[in-house]
Here is the input.
Amino acid sequence: DYFAHVPKLDAKGKNWSIFRECWKIAVQGTGLGRHFDRTYVVKVPSPGETDQTILTEYAKWQQEELQARSHLTGTLADSTLQKAIRGAPSINQIWERLEEEFQRKSEVMKANL
Here is the structure.
């Protein structure tokens, strides 16, 4: 299990750098990387869509999205999770929020050393 080696993210972000690297490896290893790729766009079926390829791909996307959310939420403190998921419709947006918050904190910590 690739995610077994991802540490729980410290609520203050003290382990952000190692967490981020372990997370990226796990995501790529499980084939969930496209959910974190800002350039990837999944085709959302229109109402009444009958093309099975589109419907199957979208169903797979939704299942992977839930898997990625499940893995990520299991590594976050409750307070971090609540802030990150509020109003975020996708795992990509949740990840962007985490990167924004904890990369900044990580840089501040390094500057204070």
About this structure: Residues 27 and 33 are 5 Å apart (CA to CA). Residues 2-111 form one domain. Helices lie at 16-29, 52-73, 78-85, 91-111.
